[in-house]
Amino acid sequence: MNGISTDLPVSVVIPCFDCAHTIERAVASVATQRQRPQEVIVVDDASTDNTALVLQRLEAASPPGWLRRVTLALNQGAASARNAGWDVAAGQYVAFLDADDAWHPDKLAVQYALMASEPSLALTGHGFVQSAQSEADFPLLPEVASAALPRRKVVAWQVLLKNPFITPSIMVRKDVPLRFVAGQRYMEDHLLLMQLALRGAPMQRIELPLACIYKSRYGEAGLSSHMNAMHRAERDNLNQLRREGSLSTLAYQGLHLYIRLKFMRRLLLVKLQQRRRV
Fold first, then answer.
1. Which of 34, 50, 14, 218 is nearest to 111 (CA)?
2. Among the four residues 17, 187, 200, 274, which has the most C-beta atoms within 10 Å?
């Protein structure tokens, strides 16, 4: 990791809780970017393992100031940890990565080039791959200019129906006035996206797999398995949007019905997966 150049005005924020066994892989995927960011901010969310020792070693192996550590005294969840990193970020843009995931080597170069070429964009995201292996097997990417990237505009109704981005795919302008809801532990990323979309913030999705997540979205250990809590958070998110005056009564009621049906479908899919394993 020595000799890292600061190529892009991007701050990478990585929330981290008891991540000693995965954070090195995440940071390595940033350090090996074709165009690297000006800084990486790892927010230790009151870890109870030896995360602090691993972060100290990574910091010592990096150029001075490139890897910054923020330590929270109490565990507050990923939303608050991301906000803590976002608030101290020095870059023009902020990109989020989770401690147990990784990026394609071209991720920052591709995504920053798009946002720099279209300064009105408030936020972009992209596709991803899932892997049960310790290392991602990313497909080769086409050699295309930013103007020819496979991408699409993301509008508010699409965001309301489904979160179009995993959090490790998001790059946002640092000056966006909203933040994740402090202390919210489920669906906090979707709420932020809905709030931005309903305020007319321009968003685009790059249709390339530029991130790898190392867990299934449902049915495995971790936050993604807590479907009941996630469903409650979806309802709470709609209630919050209603309180803000962002949703009409008809839209609010229709979306409540929609997320209930979606939740029942998820439960059915998980039960079918469990039966197949048996």
1. 34
2. 187
In angstroms, the CA 271 to CA 278 distance is 11
Distance CA 34, CA 169 (A): 17
Residue 243 token pair: 């309180």
What residues form DSSP beta bridges with 81?
A: none
Grouping H, G, I as helix, E, B as strand and the rest as coil, residue 102 is: strand
pLDDT per residue of the chain (278 residues) written in tens, 0 to 9: 444 445 899 999 999 999 999 999 999 999 999 999 999 999 999 999 999 999 999 999 999 999 999 999 999 999 999 999 999 999 999 999 999 999 999 999 999 999 999 999 999 999 999 887 767 667 666 665 555 789 999 999 999 999 999 999 999 999 999 999 999 999 999 999 999 999 999 999 999 999 999 875 544 444 445 788 999 999 999 999 999 999 999 999 999 999 999 999 988 888 887 788 76
Tell me the two tokens of residue 139.
């497909």
Nearest to 89 by CA among 40, 30, 23, 21: 40
Comparing CA positions, the residue from 168, 50, 193, 17 lying closest to residue 107 is: 168
Quote helix, strand, coil % in the chain, to nearest 5. 40, 20, 40
Distances (CA, A) of 271 to 78, 219, 225, 275: 28, 9, 13, 6
